[in-house]
């Protein structure tokens, strides 16, 4: 046999060993790391979550890693089996676990976990709150009492005071407001600050401005409404703060009817006060939304409008939790309420919905780049509280 062929022959038979005169396959290299099962028993389904950053889930023989716990920092694991496994001379207790969806499962050393569901977290929101709309009770919060810039979420207060002035009267809904301010016209044409275009000396009804401010989040429409409500921009902002004070919102201060910061408003002649931005806590935003919904429930019907023509312009509702939108979930039955964004405030969203058999929930997420997905998570978490039941 030629040397090359002999080497191949020997290499092929290197994978076998002789035991008692019988040629048997060699034990694989990783066999030494395998775990042997001493005993296994079923247990009552029990919730666990990670104890620390350490740990991984394996198949039962420990020859394949399923996943590291670091990849599932906020996951609740459900154990249904308990086993004693032997590795060399050492025995240890392992749990067979699955995540809630059941798509990640395997065996893990019991000391990597602790009993109980994983604490709920919103990783992206800088502040958030979930409130029972019926009772006003906060059922979950993150930095909920810290005042922060809230962008166009501010318009919830503007809408409240506008609806209060309208008082359900058709004459007020149909009242015409003449746009005399070149600053508002210029703002309406700005790509960053505008939206609903104004024409100088054109008249718009209160109803038209209401929908432009609510659905399209038009800043110039909100300011025009405020001027109509109180007589001037400054007077309206003082009224906003007075209303917040009457509701005992200790962490709310307004300098703008629209939610724009003074650094933007100054160029249009609408800066007010010393502070740069409206600053309101997540809890106080939820309370404003609660007052608005309870006093003027029509906002829930209006808040479901996806788009509508207003004075020949399309006003688009940017709430992507509504039916037919990307983040819609039928079970949550979201019917409002208000989006907001400035570079300073980040993405903000006030959501509300009423799941079957539950109280209405109001959620607020501030400076949250995943505002819709985290709102969904927050709503589902809130509905888990017993106090949310009818």
Automatic annotation (TrEMBL):
InterPro entries: Beta-lactam/transpept-like, Peptidase_S11, Peptidase_S11_N. Residues 124-369 form the Peptidase S11 D-alanyl-D-alanine carboxypeptidase A N-terminal domain. GO terms for molecular function: carboxypeptidase activity. SUPFAM superfamilies: beta-lactamase/transpeptidase-like. Keywords: Carboxypeptidase, Cell shape, Cell wall biogenesis/degradation, Hydrolase, Peptidoglycan synthesis, Protease, Signal. It holds the Pfam family Peptidase_S11. The keyword Protease applies. The keyword Flavoprotein does not apply. Belongs to the peptidase S11 family. This is D-alanyl-D-alanine carboxypeptidase. It comes from Levilactobacillus tujiorum.
């Amino acid at each position: 046999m030629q040397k090359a062929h002999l080497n191949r022959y020997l290499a092929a038979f290197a994978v076998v060993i002789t035991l008692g005169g019988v040629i048997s396959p060699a034990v694989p290299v990783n066999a030494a790391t395998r775990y042997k099962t001493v005993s296994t028993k079923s247990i009552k389904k029990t919730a666990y979550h990670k104890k620390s950053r350490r740990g991984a889930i394996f198949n039962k023989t420990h020859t394949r890693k399923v996943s590291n716990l670091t990849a599932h920092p906020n996951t609740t694991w459900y154990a249904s089996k308990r086993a004693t496994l032997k590795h060399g001379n050492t025995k240890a207790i392992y749990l067979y676990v699955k995540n809630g969806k059941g798509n990640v499962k395997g065996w893990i050393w019991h000391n990597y976990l602790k009993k109980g569901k994983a604490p709920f977290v919103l990783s992206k929101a800088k502040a958030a709150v979930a409130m029972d709309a019926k009772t006003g009770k906060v059922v979950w919060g993150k930095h909920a009492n810290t005042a922060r810039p809230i962008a166009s979420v501010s318009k919830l207060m503007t809408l409240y005071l506008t609806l209060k002035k309208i008082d359900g009267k058709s004459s007020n809904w149909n009242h015409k407001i003449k746009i005399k301010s070149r600053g508002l016209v210029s703002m309406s044409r700005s790509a960053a600050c505008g939206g609903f275009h104004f024409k100088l000396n054109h008249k718009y009804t209160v109803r038209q401005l209401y929908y432009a401010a609510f659905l399209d989040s038009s800043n110039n429409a909100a300011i025009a409404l405020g001027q109509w409500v109180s007589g001037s921009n400054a007077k309206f902002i003082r009224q906003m703060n007075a209303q917040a004070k009457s509701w005992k919102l200790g962490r709310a201060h307004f300098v703008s009817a629209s939610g724009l910061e003074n650094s933007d408003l100054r160029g249009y002649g609408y800066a007010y006060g010393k502070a740069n931005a409206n600053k309101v806590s997540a809890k106080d935003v939820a309370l404003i939304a609660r007052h608005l919904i309870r006093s003027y429930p029509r906002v829930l019907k209006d808040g479901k409008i996806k788009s509508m023509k207003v004075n020949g312009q399309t006003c688009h509702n940017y709430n992507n939790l509504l039916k037919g939108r990307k983040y819609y979930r039928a079970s949550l039955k979201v019917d409002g309420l208000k989006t907001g964004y400035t570079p300073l405030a980040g993405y903000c969203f006030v959501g509300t919905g009423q799941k079957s058999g539950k109280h209405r929930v109001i959620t607020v997420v501030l400076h949250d780049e995943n505002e819709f997905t985290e709102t969904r998570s927050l709503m589902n978490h809130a509905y888990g509280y017993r106090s949310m039941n009818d």
